[in-house]
Amino acid sequence: MRKTVLSLVVVSLVLLSTVGLHAGTLAGVTLPDTAQVGSANLVLNGIGLRTEFMVKVYVAGLYLEQKSSDASAIIKADAPKRIVMQFVHSASKSQMASAFSESFKDNTPDAMNTMKADINRFFGALDAVKVGDQMIFTYIPGTGTTFAINGQDKVTIAGPGFGQVIFSVWLGPKPPTPQVKKGMLGQ
Fold first, then answer.
1. CB count in 10 Å sphere of residue 158
2. Phi, psi at residue 86, to the nearest 5°?
3. Is the pLDDT at 5 greater than 70, yes or no?
4. Which among 165, 21, 9 is positioned nearest to 83, based on CA atoms?
5. pLDDT for residue 178 is more than 90
6. Does domain 22-184 have CATH number 3.90.1150.10?
């Protein structure tokens, strides 16, 4: 009896320890609970689902040094941060460019003029995506924002300005959907 109880305790502890290995699963997408960015270990702040006319488009995860639900502070912070978008629906390059353009106009309208060269470099790096593809935006102080698709760096834009613009897409006043913003903020 004692041996059985001890075995059950050990099995329970093993099962409980594996529960935290993946912080979030949404729409069939599981994102890891941490991400290494340079020397910083970031934690998954939250995940949200982007839908368009009831079609699931992507799951987005926000990684920060420490959890926060203050969207404005996250956007302005000169600290390592990352957004991972994993697609559950395909999209063409023109659809991607159109969606980002609309988000820039909605959330950072001045940037379309003041950061035109940087935004054009970003648009030039965009590609079509298919189910399972990942877009990753990583901001590192002193380096800037790196945009990658499926682990391949496409472009790095120096300085904090573009990082604030790109993070505003999801965390600004007019995100693609309120649910994606709430999810990424862990709400």
1. 12
2. -115, 125
3. no
4. 165
5. yes
6. no
